[in-house]
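Subgroup meeting minutes
Present: P.N., E.W., G.H.
Scribe: E.W.

1. P.N. recapped why we're keeping a running log of single-chain structure predictions: easier to compare across weeks, and new members can see raw inputs and outputs side by side.
2. G.H. added today's entry (108 aa).
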Amino acid sequence: MTNKTENENGVPEWAIVELQGLIQMKKGSDGGPALVGDLNYYGRSRQPVLVLGHHVLAGKEVKLEQPMAVIEKLTDDSTKYRVRAVVKKKLLFKSRPKPIISNVAEKL
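Output recorded in log:
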């Protein structure tokens, strides 16, 4: 997930996306980074909404009890690590996805 938020130390703040179920990728995906869907926030309450293909999921933002750090081991030394990001919240999508229906005119 791409997020432009940073804390006071300039470290990016990321969020965990928690889904119930299984995401199936199209054939031919090599297992590398892939675009899964579009994440947006709507309304005054800033409710997260995730669009996956022809489905939409409404979620909620939940603060984690304990923040987590995403760290990267530096290759030049076996005891040095770099903090890549801090995770303080998760986006929880626990309801069933709703289909996005488009109106298609029938030929007469």
